[in-house]
Design brief:
This protein has 447 residues and is mainly α. The chain has one domain. 85% of the residues lie in helices and 0% in strands. The chain contains 17 helices and no strands. The longest helix is centred in the C-terminal third of the chain and has 47 residues, at 392-438. It is globular, with a radius of gyration of 21 Å. The two termini are 28 Å apart. GO terms for molecular function: antiporter activity; xenobiotic transmembrane transporter activity. It is found in: Cell membrane.
Length: 447
């Protein structure tokens, strides 16, 4: 790989990491200001509703990463079709967003109960759930636009959009929650307005002369939808696995402890989600490059990009882990405004153990999106399902049953370690397939 190309790849990885941290900053800011205003029960609300964010963001990634990967592959292999992808998938994203808005208007209380809210936090959870669901269109379309703008070679604008919207969210949280005293309503309004700001900033892409994306219908093609869902499914499942894991952990914690233990888990989860977003960002940063190189059968260069992303992600994981362990006291105190001793004790003990998972999830996230980017979707989906769904119950339930909260903290690192072994075996198998079947061949990736 040439120095100039490597420098550009490092730039894209860095921009992807910074940009993708946006949603976690939203949640982190919400949790911090809610804790200061409403105490640890407010933090419990944030933890219970995180799966909603994962679902909406995941659907945006499903359409965005899938559609953008198809877009970049077809720019090389079938240029006439690449122009049809964006407008066709955009309409699907808009419909999904409107569906969430209808849910927010009709049944937020039922959804809050489904998420696990008990009588102690049901009213606050319902209020927050309603506002978040009403913002469904912007949550879905924000990730959709980010993926396409990034693949349309405007990585800087995508990064700026997420960073500015994240800063706005912090300011809006302070204003709406602490100054105006709007409580969970203020938290919801701040969080919902942030992706809207991001979308408005990205709209510049259509006026700066760089865009090859058009909203004008360019003909319907059913295969575009099928390939988009196929290519985007790993990203969706990975995002949803975060929500699924949090949902199951919350349920298990409530079974072996109480809402204060959920609040302690929520404190640690805030740190975890920021790290996971950064890991996903590094993987998304290499996705356009990997898709292009695989389309051109430049396999060695694609694997070099994977190695670069892994090194960057591990560096990020190390910094976050050391920082979280060294400053666990102030971090816990920031989300435990009322100084609840149970929350403080549980979160302080759990922080150093649960976050060991970062060193393994840093690699796993890169492997999952790399496999999807090079059209090895079956392998990518298999790894996501194994890591984010199939392992959760057999690992977490016995650990929690026998060791209570100590077992809960150990569960996630163990899941990530086992998943890494499986992921590395899939990469090894992919290398062998390339060597045996694709060496020297050209043509479309989809077989």
């Amino acid at each position: 790989m040439e120095k100039l190309e490597k420098r550009q790849l490092v730039r894209d990885v860095s921009r992807g990491a910074l940009g993708s941290v946006g949603l976690s900053i939203y949640i982190l800011a919400d949790s911090f200001f809610v804790a200061r205003s409403l105490g640890v029960l407010g933090v419990s609300v944030m933890s219970l509703t995180m799966p909603l964010f994962n679902l909406m963001e995941g659907l945006g990634l499903l359409l965005g990463m899938g559609g953008a990967t198809l877009f970049i592959i077809d720019k090389i292999q079938e240029p006439s079709n690449s122009k049809k992808v964006f407008p066709q998938i955009f309409r699907i994203g808009l419909i999904l967003g409107l569906f969430f808005m209808v849910l927010g208007l009709t049944c937020p209380r039922q959804i809050a109960q489904l998420l696990g809210a008990n009588q102690a936090v049901l009213a606050m959870t319902t209020e927050y759930t309603r506002i978040i669901l009403l913002g469904g269109p912007v949550f879905v379309l924000n990730n959709f636009f980010l993926s396409f703008v990034r693949n349309d070679r405007d990585t800087f604008l995508a990064m700026v959009a997420m960073l500015v919207s994240s800063i706005w969210n912090v300011v809006a949280d302070w204003l709406f929650i602490l100054v105006f005293k709007w409580g969970m309503l203020g938290a919801g309004l701040a969080t919902t307005s942030a992706p809207l700001i991001s979308i408005l900033i990205m709209s510049v892409h259509w006026f700066n002369g760089k865009s090859s994306l058009s909203f004008k219908p360019a003909g319907f093609r059913l295969s575009n939808i099928r390939y988009t869902l196929e290519l985007g499914l790993p990203s969706f499942l990975m995002e949803m696995s975060n929500g699924f894991t949090i949902f199951i952990f919350n349920k298990v914690i409530l079974a072996v402890s109480d809402e204060y233990a959920v609040a302690a888990y929520g404190v640690i989860t805030n740190v975890l989600l920021v790290a996971l977003a950064l890991f996903t960002g590094t993987a998304q940063g290499i996705q356009p490059f990997v898709s292009k190189e695989f389309a051109q059968r430049q396999f060695k260069r694609a694997f070099q990009a994977l190695h670069l992303a892994i090194r960057v992600a591990l560096g990020i994981g190390l910094v976050i882990y050391v920082g979280a362990v060294l400053f666990r006291g102030p971090i816990v105190a920031a989300f435990n405004e009322q100084g609840n001793p149970v929350v403080a004790s549980l979160a302080t003990k759990g922080m150093g153990v649960l976050l060991i998972s970062l060193f393994f999830s840093a690699i796993n996230n890169q492997l999952i999106i790399f496999l999807a980017s090079c059209d090895a979707t079956k392998q990518s989906i298999s790894l996501v399902l194994f890591r984010g769904y199939l392992l959760v119950f057999p690992i977490l339930l016995p650990l929690a049953f026998f060791f209570k909260m100590s077992g809960v903290w150990v569960g996630l690192p163990l899941i990530e370690i086992i998943s890494l072994v499986v992921g590395l075996s899939l990469i090894k198998r992919l290398r062998q397939v390339i060597k045996n079947k694709y060496n020297g061949q050209k043509g479309r990736l989809r077989q």
